[in-house]
Design a protein that fits this description.
Elements lengths: L1 E2 L6 H7 L5 E4 L3 H13 L13 E5 L7 H4 L9 E5 L10 E5 L5 H10 L3 E7 L7 H4 L7 E5 L20 E6 L3 H10 L4 E7 L6 H10 L5 E4 L9 H5 L9 E4 L11 H10 L5 E4 L3 H13 L13 E6 H4 L11 E6 L2
Length: about 325
Amino acid sequence: MMFNPQFPSNRALVVTCRKLKALLCCATDKLSQAVLDALVRADLGKRDDGKPRTLRFKTLADTCEAVYDKLIIPSDTGNIKVLRLRDDKSCGSSLKIIFPPGHSDEQLTALLESLQSLEELTVSILPDSTGRWLQLLPPSLRRLDVFGLGETGEPLTLAKDRRLDHGLEVVIEQAGDDVINQLAKELGPRVTALVMFNCPRVTAGALQRLLSALTGLEDVTLDGSLSGAITDASLAALHGRSQLRIMQLGTPSVLCTDIPVTEVSRLVVTCRRLEWLLFYATGELSQSVLDALVRADLGKRDDGTPRTLGFLVHGAVYDRLRIPSQTGNIKVVRCDE
């Protein structure tokens, strides 16, 4: 549980929530001391098996506040174990925070100012958000999950073989133009991977602005809910991206239904390092894209050898494709996920 200094009733939750094992206190040194003193005096009771309850009380050590270093820790803390966040092995190798709806932009900003070692953050955008929190994302952040106004959910599990070892991965779900425009304004070349799911309210203009702003993209996934926003103009925002290696349009569960075939082919041609086009769409649309790719001249790689492209389609679509005997440098691959 993350302690929120704006809600003092959270202190009582420690006692009443009998299975609570840890409290992360992101607050000033004065408030953290007050909470620690109250916890030491409290009777935590017993676990279901009759043994005394214990609680890990975690404070920050590697921030400008260095709260842990300022705490006056009693010689006998009872069943309260006070830990520097960086020393708590139960947290795993990375620090992950889920910031749910109902909290203010100021609270999110304060949290980010305190957590300079944060690696994964999940946020539900706030109605009054100014976007300032995006300017405070620490350099350590590797993944940012963003939900639309008032929306929430569990972060998506992404394929391990698509995870990059550098840059920032941004996953956007259930968002509209307001969220997309905010991200387009504040995020930039540090974003190397973009994943968008369940965003039918996003318009082509907003998607174009976002793709134009994220100039460091190497891996892009746009699911079928964005079919209406995937237009000539929005795809053209990715033209000539030398870093782009993987482009996925649609997913097995949400297919693309109506996107510009010619522009998809042009994107493949202009992105000289693109290695894979993962295309989850209707059979007719998949056939049209395949035919356009076979006719296209992919050119050569930086070393002068002919470019090749993997064109991956869903198994049911693959079985209905009319694959030419000569596909040139296009390798058609079946996916049975």
